UniProtKB/TrEMBL annotation:
Gene3D superfamilies to which the protein is assigned, alphabetical: Endonuclease/exonuclease/phosphatase
Source species: Lynx canadensis
GO CC field: mitochondrion; nucleus
Single Gene Ontology BP annotation: base-excision repair
Lineage: Eukaryota, Metazoa, Chordata, Craniata, Vertebrata
Top-level division of the source organism's lineage: Eukaryota
UniProt name for this protein: DNA-(apurinic or apyrimidinic site) endonuclease
Amino acid sequence: MLRVVSWNVNGIRSPLQGMLYEEPSNYAAMVVGRILDKLDADIVCFQETKVTSVATFCKNSATPVAAEEGLSGLLATQKGDVGCYGNMDEFTQEELRALDSEGRALLTQHKIRTWEGKEKILTLINVYCPHADPGKPERLAFKMRFYSLLKIRAEALLAAGSHVIILGDLNTAHRPIDHWDAVNLECFEEDPGRKWMDGLLSSLGCQTGSHVGPFIDSYRCFQPKQEGAFTCWSAVSGARHLNYGSRLDYVLGDRTLVIDTFQDSFLLPEVMGSDHCPVGAVLSVSSVPAKECPPLCTRFLPEFAGTQLKIRRFLVRLKDPVFRHSALKLNNKTQVQMHQNKARVRSTRPRPSQAGSSRGQKNLTSYFQPSSSHPQASPNLELPSVGALVTPKTSEKEVMAKVVEGQASASEAKDEKEIRTSFWKSVLGGPLSMPLCRGHREPCVRRTVKKPGPNLGRHFYICARPQGPPTDPSSRCNFFLWSRPS
């Protein structure tokens, strides 16, 4: 059996934050090791690690025969690449570089053996698809172009005879059943990401007959009508507990592979540590490990070799003769200027003969002799009398008057300070207190309108609780209040 798991961890250190104080010396290695032990899979694909966008871990028994970063092939510059790129004429070179610049795709190719003893090639595409921010229309265009490139590459691999699994965070809820409130979402049917998935996936699941796309959503193949099967929840407190989320993480397999080898497809909502939960599948095949790891494997990187790097690795040799000539010219100019400065300093420095001093060590008493630059005290200088140095006695009335005067000045300074403080408080009033919602009498949250229209950019207040059915009293109430303009 081959078990594959995908998980958007929202930071590689997030799942086991409570273990920080147990073993702080090797915390990073300990976290990854315990996550892999908990998932108990042959191949684990991570997304949003905050170190890289995607990362794939394989057991020794599932060592890939090839690995490649990106979908376009522009980053494939060494031996051990996956290949099979398809027709990408609709993309420019600059566009392909931009789509792969964020490191959102990682391909690994494995040898598998079926129960009949046949060896085949399986390509896993670990993806973290872009999110379409409503306030940034250009990100929606970027997301759709990334989808197109992903489909072209996957279909090219299928045409070359490889089985393909696309797994990861696709950032799209495909069907209304995959979102807790899809009925009330505006334009859910017209979502371009959902339309793209309609063209990628087979509409009849595991049933035989006509189908639209070459891939199958493996979870819906085994659980076609399971409601509340979500993989991502809002960051609002209580959303996961109330199960107000959506299904954005998938394991998509090509139709032949899913029908012939998939034994199960599952979600792991009980695994905490991220706003996503792991998803996975079990295949009735065995993996055939490669004799050696592909060059893209991290074990070949100097950073993971376990030895200290030399400082020469951080220095870049100038290969361009123009830059080398300019650097040499600048270096020669700098050396000449340094010699001129040294000669100027030597010429202005006084010699011992000119200064009139000997090279021998000076006597300590020479530092206590009067300097010729300061006038010496006259021997006929008259000292003041002792009586002049005595402070005259002040009367008790004068002392009391001074005390009263000091208290009055302190009171005036205090009043002036209070006046200044009240003035600046009136000018800089600070943020207004949050209003209370009528349903729960709790502080609201402030939101901003991002939908194009006359209210674009305006602020408003709503209930801070997560969304839910209207019949649930613990969910968000219908309180709404426009914010006053500042």
